[in-house]
Amino acid sequence: MSARQWLMLGLAGLMILYGAWFAVEGLWALFTVFALPPLLLLLAALSGSRTAPLWASVLALLWFSHGVMEAWAAPQHRELALIETALALLVIFSASLPGLRARFAKRRERPSVNAE
Prior knowledge:
Elements: H1 3-23, H2 28-46, H3 52-73, H4 78-109
């Protein structure tokens, strides 16, 4: 799978998670606030947007923080919060992967300089 496909999988997972978490409890405002950004970013990634991975990783930092906070503060939601944290890490990693590959590919292409 490509990094973009992993990104889309992570965004779809977050959207489904928020649907299960907030909509079931009747918290429609939270569902909208949390589920709408991954949906919009997923649609942008599907359309080939070049900035979607950047914005997904920026928002994933917030989702990661929310997941850690919920896992710590609300034991009844710990499983969902840990899933949120894992999906946020998937989004961050998959959004960063093309840049990491490019960065380290350049390092391998450079000729070595021998000190004499």
